TrEMBL record:
Residues 13-205 form the Lon N-terminal domain. It comes from Yoonia vestfoldensis. The keyword Hydrolase applies. Its EC number is 3.4.21.53. It holds the Pfam family LON_substr_bdg. One of its GO terms (biological process) is proteolysis. One of its GO terms (molecular function) is serine-type endopeptidase activity. This is Lon protease 2. The keyword Hydrolase applies.
Length: 215
C-alpha cells in the first residue's frame, strides 16, 4: 500500500532547495536541520496532515541565484530527533515527484511553492521492476566506478537489493553533480533511471576522480 494517496497531496508545499540532495519515490533521505528558517519549516510541517516537504535542486549556473528546477520530489516526514545542540535529524520518505507551478509569496522564512502532481502517478504505485536489467554487467560497471573513485560500500547488501532499491539508492548516494542528480530524478521510469545512472558512471570513468565512502 502506498504511504500516501493522490487525494492527500496538497496544492502548496514547503520546499527545501539543497544542491545534490536527491530524494526519489519510495526512498528515504536523512537530513540535518539547523538553520532557523528550516526549523520553522519543520515546526509548521508537523502541524499539517500530509507532513510533506519538497526537495528541489537550485540551479547552479551564473546569474541563476535562487532559481529552482521545475521538478522536485516530496517526502513525508517519517522520523525526527533533536540533538543536544538544538539541531534536528529528520528522515523524509519519498512520496511523489511534482512540478512547480509558481512560488508562493508570504510571511514564512522558508520557501513555498504551488505544485502540480500530474504525470507522476507511478510514484504512488507499487515498487517498480526493471525487466531488462542486466545485473551482472551493471554490477561490473559499478565495481569499476567505486574503485576508480576510492569509494567503499556494503557489497553484499547491494548485490541482494531489489532492482528499485539498488538503482535508487545508487542514484541518491553516488557523487554526481546537482544537474546529473536532476537528470536521475526526472527519469520517467526505473529502466530509464538505470540507463542514465550507467551512462553517468561510464562518463565519470573517462574523466575525474574522487574519494569518499558510500554509507
Amino acid at each position: 500500500m502506498p504511504m500516501i494517496s493522490s487525494t492527500d497531496l496538497p496544492e502548496t508545499i514547503p520546499v527545501f532547495p539543497l544542491p545534490g540532495a536527491l530524494l526519489l519515490p519510495r526512498s528515504r533521505l536523512p537530513l540535518h536541520l539547523f538553520e532557523p528558517r528550516y526549523l520553522a519549516m519543520l515546526d509548521d510541517v508537523m502541524k499539517t496532515s500530509s507532513r510533506l516537504i519538497g526537495m528541489v535542486q537550485p540551479y547552479d549556473a551564473p546569474g541563476a541565484a535562487g532559481k529552482l528546477h521545475s521538478i522536485g520530489c516530496a517526502g513525508k516526514l517519517t522520523a525526527f530527533s533533536e540533538t543536544e545542540d538544538g539541531r534536528y535529524m529528520i528522515t523524509l520518505s519519498g512520496a511523489s515527484r511534482f512540478r512547480i507551478v509558481e512560488e508562493v509569496e508570504g510571511f514564512t522564512p522558508y520557501r513555498r511553492c504551488k505544485v502540480n502532481w500530474n504525470g507522476f502517478s507511478r510514484d504512488l504505485g507499487p515498487v517498480e521492476k526493471d525487466e531488462n536489467f542486466d545485473r551482472d554487467s551493471f554490477m561490473k560497471a559499478l565495481n569499476r566506478f567505486l574503485v576508480d573513485h576510492g569509494l567503499s560500500t556494503d557489497w553484499d547488501s547491494l548485490s541482494e537489493a531489489e532492482d528499485e532499491l539498488l538503482i535508487n539508492s545508487l542514484s541518491m548516494l553516488c557523487p554526481f553533480t546537482p544537474e546529473d542528480k536532476q537528470a536521475l530524478l526526472e527519469a520517467p521510469s526505473l529502466s530509464t533511471r538505470r540507463e542514465t545512472l550507467l551512462t553517468l558512471m561510464e562518463y565519470s570513468l573517462r574523466g575525474g576522480n574522487g574519494e569518499g565512502v558510500m554509507q
